[in-house]
Design goal:
The complex is a heterodimer of chains A (295) and B (681).
Chain A lengths: L6 H5 L4 H16 L10 E7 L11 H7 L3 E6 L5 E7 L13 H19 L3 E7 L3 E8 L4 H11 L12 H7 L5 E6 L5 H8 L8 E8 L1 H4 L7 E5 L5 E4 L1 H5 L1 H19 L3 E6 L5 H14 L1
Parallel strand pairs in A: 3-4, 3-6, 6-7, 7-10
Antiparallel strand pairs in A: 1-2, 4-5, 8-9
Chain B lengths: L1 E2 L12 H9 L7 E3 L9 H31 L1 E6 L7 E7 L9 H14 L7 E6 L3 E3 L7 H10 L9 H14 L4 E7 L19 E7 L8 E8 L3 E2 L10 E8 L4 E9 L2 E10 L4 E6 L7 E9 L10 E8 L3 E7 L5 H14 L3 E7 L13 E5 L6 H12 L4 E4 L9 E2 L4 E8 H4 L3 E6 L22 E2 L1 E5 L5 E6 L4 E8 L2 E6 L15 H14 L7 E3 L3 E3 L14 E3 L9 H6 L2 E3 L4 E6 L5 E7 L12 H8 L4 H8 L7 E5 L1 H27 L3
Parallel strand pairs in B: 4-5, 4-7, 7-8, 10-16, 17-18, 17-19, 19-20, 20-28, 29-34
Antiparallel strand pairs in B: 1-3, 3-35, 5-6, 9-11, 11-14, 12-13, 12-15, 15-16, 21-22, 22-25, 23-24, 23-26, 26-27, 27-28, 30-32, 31-33, 33-34
Helix pairs in contact in B: 1-2, 2-13, 3-4, 6-9
Classes of the chains: A alpha/beta (295), B alpha/beta (681).
Chain lengths: 295, 681
Amino acid sequence: MQRFLDPTVLAGISSLDLVAKTVVDGFVAGLHRSPDFGFSQEFAEYRAYTPGDDLRHVDWNLFARTERCYLKRYRGETNSQLTVLLDASNSMEYSSGPPKKMDYARFVAASLFYLALHNQRDAAGLIVFDEQVRDIVRPSTRPGQLGRLFAALERAEPHARTDFAKPLHHFQELLHRRGIAIVISDFYEDPESIVRTIEPLRYRGNEVVLFHILDPQEIRPLLKSSAILVDLETDHKIEVVPEYARTSYRAKIDAHVEHLRSRTRAAGMDYQLLVTDQPLDSALRQYLALRKERN
Amino acid sequence: MGFLTPWFLGGLALLSVPVFVHLLRRHVAIPRPVSSLMFFERGIQSSTRHHRLKHLVLLALRCALVLLVVLAFANPFVHRVAANTNSRLLLIVLDNSFSMRAGTRFADARQQALAKLAAKQPSQKAQIMSLGGQLQILTQPIFDAAQMRSALESVQPGDGHASYGELGHALRAVAENVHTPIDVHLYSDMQRSAMPANFADLVLPANVTLDLHSVAGKIATPNWTIESIDAPAELSDPKDPHRSRVRAVVAGFGTQAASKTVSLVVNGKTISTRKVEVPANGRATVEFAPLDVNYGFNRCEVRVEGGDALPADDSMVFAVRRSDPQRVLFVHASGDTRSPVYFGSALKAAAKSSFVLQSVSQEQTTNLDPSHFAFVVLSDSAGLPAIFEHTLAQYVARGGNVFIALGTSAARRARIPVWDANVADAHDYVRLSGAATIGEVDFTHPALLDAQPGRNNGGWAEAKVFYAAVVDPRGARIAARLSDGTPLLLDKQVGQGHVLLLTTGLENLTNDVPLHPVFVAFADRVARYLSGSERLSGSRLVDAYVQLRAPADSTSGQGSVEVIGPDSRRPLSLSEAKTAQTLRLEQAGVYQIRLANGRDMLIGVNPDRRESDLQPIADDVQRLWSGSGSSVASQTEAGSTHQESYRPVSLWWYVMLLAFITALAEIAFASRYMSTQREEI
């Protein structure tokens, strides 16, 4: 099986859980060659026995060889809580070719959920928002949670426009426990405003990651001649010439991405640009890296 | 310039359609959705300028298309000069027939033709032809005067007989292909004997004008000639008073009565001279006998003393071959004693000592080789020994000839040897109606040759046939039929040889033909035809053809022929010598030929004696001929000789072609423009 399936191939798979399983299994199979990551309990250190210690932790094999009593200590296994905040505004509907940005965001979220619940035993939850919170699946590890999350992803059709400010207080209510919060959006707003809105999520000890989903045509638009462009969220129209798209626009979008990346990191958050024609492994890798840091 | 249908110009109002489309109808672009206009800026000014540029080109193309289509329907035309000198084809015909050898006729004619060619304008097309034994096209219609001059200078006086009827036919054919007016200039001696029997053969098409340039005077030039010769081609006994003689006819055309000396020359040596009185403008016969020639081929010539305008026709050449009498194998049924007697007697009476009949019964043929005989006669021989029949078949395949007479035994044994067919039926006329007569005789067949057959069907009408076999005539030439249509004499080529089949017998039981005088002539002609010796010598006319090999032989890869012409040159190339079936005798003189089957041939070739009559065509006939084609045209042109006539030339095709190109350009530009709208979806 191909390790990372092409997004255009994933777009042809109708079942979201199959997409997630395909992506994660391929991703995990690749990790076996990497020494940096592990999932089970890990050995931490030996400590001399002191009276009162639990005898169950004594390493009796070592005692048999050396006649010294040592306790074998493990790195305590901690469960994280993953919450995905999915932007379902109209701008996510854009596509220059399969998959749409919304579909790509679904694949990312589904793969994260599958990785968290199935492989890491982490609690996972979902908040779908546009200009307000549209759907909530509270983080949980209960059986059937994966199905509920996938169903919520299926229901998340693009609608209205993005507004981070309005649903912010809902985020803070919902994220009352420490964990990892991943915001998936195309972030067509001022980076200052975005960071200012999302930054409070960190105050409760959350690790916040921004997955910036963009279509290749949004980064490098190709216009053969002048055209009338329509904003998917506001329905505003303007006529644009190819010269502008080739020069000024590219500079602006690059500056926007760089500004958002720098501001996000300055605020102690992580940022990952995901282009819809690239495999999903960078998103999963980012999640696992964060989880390791937390442990 | 004008328009043939100007009312279609009203269609120019349609020009408003593309103007409306381009100027009044706003361009509608299909919007293209994007996630956000956050980073886009309006760029109207440059975009509009770009579109307008394209629009103007497209508008111009569409207006031009409408304009051209309307113009095409209006059918524009321009005036052009209808037919000036440069558009007329100059056709120069130079007569190089035998009579042009008289005096300086040919040199004069060529000089005049060259002068005419030199006077031609460089921009006028011309064509050169020569009229001899056949009309030859020396050049195609071209402008290159040097090439045509070279063609004219290459023409040499020939030995053929010209025919103005053939010229008229060729001019009609040229006029069908060349639609411009044709000016024909004929440089000839205007010989009366070259005129066709029917004046209609001379009539020219309307676009042909004929100028006759006669190089002969108005009065006929006196000319003496040897008009004909009666001499044996094959001679076996020089002392035979009937055959060993040469009879020549001396003719005078436009001459006074005179006494002429006629000589017989054999192999370059004058062996006899006679004085003959020739009446004014008449003929006299002179005879040389006996004809003492050596064994083999002899080149003979009869000459009349010269002193006339055309010395080339003062002699006539022919070839005589002297040989021993040829043996003829006569195979008959054992009980048949009559047929060898009848046929042998007839052959002896006719051909004297030329042929010797060797008569054998069919049972005695086992050890005989047919190739030792001039030809073979099978008389009622249905039961030939198989070995002889096989030998005979090979003999015929190699070129031998057989004469088969079917007697009464044919009905009993249906198969006919060598003939490759069976007897289908037999008619016993005695039981039916008493006897059948010979109803149809082909006097052009060599075995029945008779130039002037009598009223009684050349003597055949009196003969009666009592019994005849019925043979399928497919693949054979029927030379004679009975009154009920039953084929009587058939000729079929088998391999390289010929088989002559008589469906009745050679005795007086199945018919009474042997009892009639015609049987003697028949036996003589059959013998000469089947022996083939007559064809190997004698004389022919110029432009006659000689068969070099059998038609089936052309691909068999048998030996090549060898021909040496009168000028001691070989007229056939090596490849032609391997494949040519016939040879056209183009020159006067003696041809020496070795045929494909290895037999030698020596024939004298003489010009057609009609060429010796130098009497020109009457002036009124010449005027009638030269005016036949252009009379109508000249009447219409008479009034406008000095005025240039114009004709309208339609430009419809050019305008439509331009419209088509414009339409293609419009499609290309329009599709480019439309693709601008589609690609952003």
